[in-house]
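Sample pair:
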Amino acid sequence: MFDNLPAAPEKATQAWSETVRSGDIVSFHFPANEGKSGPTPKARPCLVLAAATIAGQRWLTIAYGTSVTEKVRKGYAIPLGSRDARLAGLERATAFRGDRIVIVRTNHSAFAVSPIFRTPVLGRLTGRPLARMREIQARLQAEADIAAERRAERRRARVDERKSLIQARARAAARAVITGT
């Protein structure tokens, strides 16, 4: 009786690159000079601060992660104690540095994709660390907005200088026509 029913469609699983979002922790060969043991830096946990799709490509802003938490500047630090680290899928206390970030595409070769799970995603922030990440995101966005406004002010000042120069030349040209010089 039930042997002629259509099979239930299998649930399609999306690739990690399409589902990764801010707050996720990924394994990434972050470019670093300290402790270099070979041609490529070691894979380390990094925090996804932002994810965006631009012109059909997924881009991630990721922050450097380190277990050497004493060296992290406190103003941009997103610290995880041992308990928070375990909840986030990490083995030990880790701090992410919001002052040390890179922006990469999700197909970047530096992602350390697990051959078993086929994803570099190690876990996700929750609780206080997630709230701290949101504070750092807001701070970085505010700094970017301030920098953009400064660039716009400089651009407006250059345009105003050009306008003044053009107007001064036009007045000089008009005087020359009137006085015949």
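The CA atoms of residues 61 and 141 lie 12 Å apart.
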